[in-house]
């Protein structure tokens, strides 16, 4: 199942290529003189959860940052809703991208309600995903648990009614109960047609919710397939983490 990027592109997404909301075409990117991503191609369709897996330092966060426009690709193209994007993060967010960063992006000195108001959606829509936030709306976000902060971040992102949702490390350090609630919200968003690219430390957790996955190693896609296929051949996923097949 080891693939080259040339082979990644012809994969037919569920819903067909016309439903593709996000695509990277042969993207290379990095920091200063350091090249991190090398010739990455991937795609996510409307109504699809795609997991981006790989060991620490493989380039997962860099991939999301490049999609969001925080890093400019040195080569290749970032395509959102069929348009090649070279514009700012703010413009991409304005036109339907939501991005939950690894640090969650919750402003700890503001209340939960104020954090939700910073988003592009309504508090009501945010609460429709996580009604359990309501009793905490007046609390300072810094006093919420990690799980509650992550729910706040995901609720704010989903309330903006995005076409494409990027999530960096959904479950990091969270109790299983919170992880389950967060995964439920992603399933609902997928059913509502959102294209979701999920970076997740726990590959099994990610593959249990995802439709497809890509494994990165040393900044390259080294394995891809349906979640079902990858779960049934999990040794191969683990080998791919090390950059071997
Ligand atoms: N701001 C930066 N400047 C220089 N190098 C960076 C920077 N951010 C990340 N890197 C390097 O880029 C490589 C990929 O990092 P990245 O954070 O994308 O990996 P990751 O797969 O998300 O890992 P993790 O799971 O640890 O977050 C690493 O070698 C990292 O040290």
From TrEMBL:
<dbReference type="InterPro" id="IPR052156">
    <property type="entry name" value="BCAA_Transport_ATP-bd_LivF"/>
</dbReference>
<feature type="domain" description="ABC transporter">
    <location>
        <begin position="22"/>
        <end position="243"/>
    </location>
</feature>
<dbReference type="InterPro" id="IPR017871">
    <property type="entry name" value="ABC_transporter-like_CS"/>
</dbReference>
<keyword id="KW-0067">ATP-binding</keyword>
<dbReference type="InterPro" id="IPR003593">
    <property type="entry name" value="AAA+_ATPase"/>
</dbReference>
<dbReference type="InterPro" id="IPR003439">
    <property type="entry name" value="ABC_transporter-like_ATP-bd"/>
</dbReference>
<dbReference type="GO" id="GO:0005524">
    <property type="term" value="F:ATP binding"/>
</dbReference>
<comment type="similarity">
    <text>Belongs to the ABC transporter superfamily.</text>
</comment>
<keyword id="KW-0547">Nucleotide-binding</keyword>
<keyword id="KW-0813">Transport</keyword>
<protein>
    <submittedName>
        <fullName>Branched-chain amino acid transport system ATP-binding protein</fullName>
    </submittedName>
</protein>
<dbReference type="Pfam" id="PF00005">
    <property type="entry name" value="ABC_tran"/>
</dbReference>
<dbReference type="InterPro" id="IPR027417">
    <property type="entry name" value="P-loop_NTPase"/>
</dbReference>
<keyword id="KW-0029">Amino-acid transport</keyword>
């Amino acid at each position: 199942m080891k693939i080259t990027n040339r082979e990644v592109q012809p994969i037919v997404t569920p819903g067909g290529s016309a439903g593709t909301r996000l695509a990277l075409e042969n993207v290379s990117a990095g920091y200063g003189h350091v090249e991190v991503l090398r010739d990455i191609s991937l795609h996510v369709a409307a109504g699809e959860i795609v997991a981006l897996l790989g060991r620490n330092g493989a380039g997962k966060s860099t991939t999301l940052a490049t999609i969001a426009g925080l890093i400019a690709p040195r080569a290749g193209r970032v395509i959102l809703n069929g348009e090649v994007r070279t514009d700012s993060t703010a413009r991409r967010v304005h036109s339907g991208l939501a991005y939950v960063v690894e640090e969650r992006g919750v402003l700890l000195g503001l209340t939960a309600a104020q954090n939700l108001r910073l988003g592009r959606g309504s508090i009501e829509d945010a609460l429709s995903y996580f009604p359990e936030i309501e009793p905490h709306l007046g609390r300072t976000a810094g006093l919420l648990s990690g799980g509650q902060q992550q729910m706040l971040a995901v609720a704010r992102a989903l309330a903006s009614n995005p076409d494409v949702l990027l999530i960096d490390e959904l479950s990091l350090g969270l109790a299983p109960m919170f992880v389950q609630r967060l995964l439920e919200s992603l399933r609902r968003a997928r059913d509502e047609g959102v294209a979701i690219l999920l970076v997740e430390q726990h590959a099994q957790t990610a593959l249990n919710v995802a439709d497809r996955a890509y494994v990165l190693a040393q900044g390259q896609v080294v394995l891809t397939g349906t979640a079902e296929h990858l779960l049934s051949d999990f040794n191969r996923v683990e080998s791919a983490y090390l950059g071997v097949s």
